Amino acid sequence: MTASTIEVLFTAFLAMAPISELRGAIPYGLAHDIPPLALYALCVLANVVPVPFIVCFTRTVLLWMKKRGGKLKKAADWLSDRAMKKSALYRKYEQLGLFILVAVPLPGTGAWTGALVAALMGLRIRQSLPVIAAGVAAAGAVVMLVCTGVIHLAGI
Predict the structure, then answer these.
(1) Residue 93 has what pLDDT?
(2) How many CA atoms lie within 13 A of 75 on its CB side?
(3) pLDDT score recorded for residue 137
(4) What is the mean pLDDT for each group of 10 consecutive residues in the chain (156 residues)?
């Protein structure tokens, strides 16, 4: 049986979303019978779609949130602090650090975090997008290999 259009679109949405990204979209897509190669391509592309917007508009949105005050300011401060903690890896290794930040498929890493760090570090899209896209592709490969049983993390 093949996946329906709704399941494919929902999988793409999961890959674009900041919490699930492709780490949640790939298992969902596999569970809904999307062919693995098509699923991998869909999830990588969908996960990269928000990156240019995040890199371009993050600083403007955070400044607006800080000016509004209250809960918006607290949320903006929290996001900025979180990104600055993650940026230590970038500061130490530059492009390789950004790649590693995105490529390691753990909570708190991924395209959204990488784009946030890139934006707050003042990187341009042409500098950050290829590195983030490569990190997403690597993370997608790891998640796909784990989910299909090629890599056994538990040693079973």
Answers:
(1) 83
(2) 11
(3) 98
(4) 86 96 96 96 98 94 94 93 81 88 91 93 93 98 92 63
Output the six-digit token pair for 108: 């708190």
Q: For residue 138, give Cα distances in angstroms to 4, 32, 44, 63, 64.
A: 27, 23, 9, 32, 34
Q: What is the pLDDT of residue 78?
A: 92
Contacts of 98 (CB under 8 A, 6+ apart): 89, 90, 114, 117, 118, 123, 128, 131, 132, 135
Instruction: Name the one residue in this structure whose structure tokens are 């708190």.
Output: 108
The residue among 93, 108, 94, 106 whose CA lies nearest residue 142 is: 106
